[in-house]
Amino acid sequence: MYNAASLVISMLALALSGLATVRQTRHARSESDMTMVLEVAMRNIRDKEFQSDQMYVLTQLSREHPPDSGMDALPEPARSMTRNVAFTYEYLAIMYALGMVDSRIALGIFHFRINQVWETLEPYIRAERVVRQAPCCPFFENLYLRARSRPLHVILRSLGLRSSRGFSPED
User: How far from each other are the two terminal CA atoms of the chain, in whole angstroms?
Assistant: First the structure.
């Protein structure tokens, strides 16, 4: 009788320990996701040089340089600025594709810029693919397609966020 009770108590303790481990693992992953996104956001995307490069890409690149020969054929400093912006989003997109970051977080934070930057750089990236005869920024393109397929308000609702314009997670 004592052996059976000991066995039941041991099994119950093992099950509870397993559940606690699963919860801790989920919590650690969530913290890790946020840390990675914040690392990209804070170190790269909020960096003054990146902001300057991104503004150049969005406002001047297409006026000053045709996309015909791709990104690597651009003259300096346009080449460095364009590559800085394209590959920053490529790195974010790699984390997204590998499941290293929650899609709702990545798309909720960067949705607008992902769309805006991809649509500006797409002709340069496509030309670069032709020149290289190899992929260029495939992860960024995938992230762009994911962002385009999910409206931002849907993503924000899925996170339980509310809007001053009246939508709520339940809407």
Answer: 56
